[in-house]
Amino acid sequence: MLQNPPRASIIEDLEDLYENAPCGYLSLDPSGRIFKVNKTLCNWVGYAPEHLVGKRLGDLLNIAGRMFYETHIAPLLRMQGFFNEVALDLVAQNGERLPVIANAAERRAADGSVISTRITLLKAADRRRYEQGLLNARDQSRSSEAVARAILKDERETSQLREQFIAVLGHDLRNPLASISAGARILLRRTEDEAEVRVLDMMQTTVTRMSGLIDNVLDLARGRLGGGISLGRDADLPLQPVLAQVVDELRTTMPDRVIERDFRIIDPVDCDRSRIGQMVSNLLGNALTHGAADKPVRIGASTANGMFELWVANSGEPIPEAVMAHLFQPFFRGEVRASLQGLGLGLYIASQIAEAHDGTLTVASTAEETRFTFRMPLR
Predict the structure, then answer these.
(1) pLDDT in tens, 185-230
(2) What's the DSSP call for residue 58?
(3) How many CA atoms lie within 13 A of 278 on its CB side?
């Protein structure tokens, strides 16, 4: 007769799995400091566990990585409580660079306060070998060797292109932008000259806009090269604070424009909060760009009858019929002042986010109002 193993043995086995896992693990306390790290990660970087306890994740990164983490990853973690598939470069004790893929998730108490944050790290090289193994396994299952080789070759090339393209956009473009943003904030704290403050505020506005453009291009790359729009749905966390934060950010970057909001979200919404925030940012940015400058842009969100509805409206010239058919296509920009030209991806990405949520994004435009409406099931 089989007997259950003693509790001490189970705990010992779990601890062994944690310490010797193929992934690196570290846990952060609510202040962002490391309080637990596994043996695997210590072996990678060449530090003893007691050397890492008390430090921050940024202490393990190079200078560019620290700026990227503080200006992009840390705010994302604070806003949605997790992040996925982030490329970082650890710096080992001997100075060598260790590329990793990082994922993070918060653990919260019943009152909503953060207990800890678990960071999972996978060597980028190990991940590539794993993906290659999947491709090889699929290749072997093909009945036709000639067809299988052609398909595998094409997928390998596509995979490499996706990895290279997204890596360039996500790393080489974000890092200089993070440096500009950090430098502008430092100078802003040191000056009281009104002219210099205006210039620095303009720089920060440009950084915010460029960051949004990079996000859109990355999503286009993932969608067109096989990754698709990824979602992290959660109906337990409130959506309204995310929408309010997006509105406040745009009010800050365009202080001369009026944005009116009406949020009546009384039911939980099963959605990816950061993706919905990205959609709202794109729709509001479009309305502020194309709407009448002397009229307010309006945004509303509500839940009723098992549906979530979000709309953004602006006054101004109606959208021509010939343009309506192309609004949600990538790189379509329509008629807009040259100084405000973007990549033409905002509405396309918004439509892809709507589709990923099993929802719809529609537009109606008259002489009185242009309104974009997003509707999705609550669950």
Answers:
(1) 888 888 888 888 878 877 776 777 677 667 666 666 555 545 556 7
(2) G
(3) 29
Contact predicate 313/370, CB 8 Å: yes
Of the candidates 202, 54, 21, the one whose C-alpha atom is nearest the C-alpha of residue 121 is 21
**59-103 pLDDT tens trace:** 898 887 788 787 777 777 777 788 887 888 899 999 888 888 888
Rg of the chain taking only CA atoms, in angstroms: 24
**HEC assignment per residue over 253-288:** HCCCCCEEEEEECCCCCCECHHHHHHHHHHHHHHHH
249-257: long-range contacts (C-beta < 8 A, 24 or more apart)? 249/208, 249/281, 250/281, 250/284, 250/285, 250/288, 253/204, 253/205, 253/208, 253/209, 254/205, 254/288, 257/288, 257/293, 257/296, 257/297
Q: Is 56 left (phi over 0), alpha (psi -120 to 50) or beta?
A: beta
Strand-pairing partners, residue 310, are 301, 374
What 3-state DSSP class applies to 56?
strand
Could you give the CA distance from residue 148 to residue 190 in angstroms, rounded to a whole number? Answer: 62
Does the reported pTM lie above 0.85? no
Give SS3 for 113: coil
Q: What number of other Cβ atoms are within 10 A of residue 230's Cβ?
A: 13
**Token pair for 157:** 């090339």
Q: Is the dihedral of CA 340, 290, 320, 363 positive or negative?
A: positive
